[in-house]
Write a structure and sequence with these properties.
By secondary structure, the protein is mainly α. The chain is 75% helix and 0% strand. Helix 1 runs antiparallel to helix 2.
Length: 71
């Protein structure tokens, strides 16, 4: 379970760094107000990913606590 946490932190850091790099671009013809929304969208994506990992960790923990002792 600790490996899942480490992988999620690393992937979250990579996505954040990418969003910051894209968000610093200057406005263009296709994005006249800039690229700052990329940071918001990637934060939403990270939140969804973390919520999925929370579900996965609780599901695995409940299996270890309630199901495996019965086998």
């Amino acid at each position: 379970l600790d490996a899942i946490h480490s992988i999620s932190d690393t992937s979250s850091d990579i996505v954040t760094l990418w969003a910051l790099r894209v968000g610093r671009r200057k406005p263009s013809e296709t994005h006249p107000y800039g690229y700052g929304k990329y940071e918001v969208y990637t934060n939403i994506l990270e939140i969804q990913f973390k919520l999925y990992l929370i579900y996965l960790i609780f599901h695995l923990a409940s299996l270890y606590i309630f199901v495996l002792p019965l086998l």
